[in-house]
Every structure is written in C-alpha cells, then in structure tokens.
Specification:
mainly alpha; 2 helices; about 0% strand
Length: about 60
C-alpha cells in the first residue's frame, strides 16, 4: 500500500516564497535586467559574426 503524503506544507512554503519574492522585486530592476540581457545578447551576436568573418579571412 502506498503511503499518503500531505503536500500542504510544501505548497504553503512555495507559495509564500513566490509571493515574498514578487513583493520585493522592483519594476525598475526588471527593466534594467531586460535591457542588460538585450545588450548582452546583441554584443555576443555581433562578436560571433565578427569572429566568423576573421576566421574566414584567415583561411583564405
């Protein structure tokens, strides 16, 4: 027979943690994080293209 597990404590802890995190996150921090992620992804993409161009020039 399978034991019965009461998940109410885990669910209560998880919901409390999520609500606490949501209450402490500032909207300005979210925008800053999104902006930095966009800048980082763009720079990474441009550097990758540049390095591919350099490798093609070296191989010729």
């Amino acid at each position: 027979m399978y034991p019965h597990h009461d998940h109410s404590t885990a669910l209560g802890t998880a919901s409390g943690t999520v609500l606490t995190v949501l209450a402490t996150i500032d909207l300005q921090d979210v925008f800053k994080t999104v902006l930095l992620a966009i800048i980082g992804a763009t720079v990474s993409f441009v550097v990758t293209l540049f390095l591919k161009w350099v490798v093609r020039k070296i191989k010729k």
